[in-house]
Amino acid sequence: MSGSATDRRLFRKRTVRDVDPGGKRVLVRVDFNVPLDRDGERVSVADDGRIRAALPTIEHLRDREARLVLVSHLGRPKDRERELSMAPVSARLGELIGAEVRQAPAVVGPDVEQAAAALAPGDVLVLENSRFEPGETKNDPQLSDALSRLADLYVDDAFGAVHRVHATTVGVAERLPAVAGFLLEREVTMLSGLLEDPGHPFVVVLGGAKVSDKIGVIERFLEIADAILIGGAMCFSFFRAQGLPTGDSLVEEEGVEPARRALERAQRSSCELELPVDLVVADRVAADAEWRQLDGVEVPDGWMGLDIGPRTARAYAERISQAGTVFWNGPMGVFELAPFQEGTRGVAAAVAAVDGLSVVGGGDSAAAVRQLGLDEAAYGHISTGGGASLEYLEGRELPGLAVLAD
Question: Which residues are catalytic?
Fold first, then answer.
């Protein structure tokens, strides 16, 4: 992360650069919500991208002799399921930093307080899955109190969770001196740059299933972007709004009216809102489904659209290639299945090749980059927080960011 004056103007919170962590116990909220591989009793991390993203902050604090206590959620546990323990994540972190990483037996409690008190400078302790505690998602004051007793300083480096009012994102930050880590700083800086000073032409590519999740972003970018390219299942809400047949395609009914309003607004905007001109359709969602390319977008009964078509993919790639800035969030189709991944592959490759700034909005887009075997280093920035990035770009306040020291 650059420490340039421009970067600091875009990020208006104190960071780990602004504090002396030497000898202090530092509670770091990380986003280690990673996919796991299970082979019988053996559980390992399937994708360590989010762990690697937090390493600059972790190493910065270790180099300055901080005593680190890391906390993260993992999945959506209903209780304290063993298969959602942080132990495999701790093991992988230890491999990455080349040092022992201790696994706490719980999130809070006397044994955890004892383990935190025993840390030497540079040591790392990982708490159990924060969502093992019901009070986490409720921002419970007692849990926040217990967590704050573990440390002298709080660092938030979990951009993917800053839009949540949880004990580990807001409650603790209200009780301890609280600053941002390098990952959180970089995420906000990159997204702020899209809003405040994008290079033009500014092209936005939006996919995924739900218009309702992205209508705020569409409305915001209709004001500042030069083109918005729509793909994924969300395009069917737009087609339904235009009165076109969508067959058995996934249509978010509550997204139809917002889509209609966005189309009307685009008519009054200098930003072009573009929809697919052809589709790949199938009789069902399966790798061995019967499928064909549809020369157009009117989907017959009994068929469902599962990807943008080749003409659309080429047109979108051409538009992206001319961009000074590109923001991409959401796949163009069901990229997990081979017959329906070419639209996403074409867009992803075009975004990677753009000469200007390219920002990938996390979530399924980041997963597609990895699954399709594309070079992550080719992108200007791949966000670790899909939902958080969208809320930030909409202009919503992110509670976990707002609570940090200015």
Answer: 50, 210, 363, 387
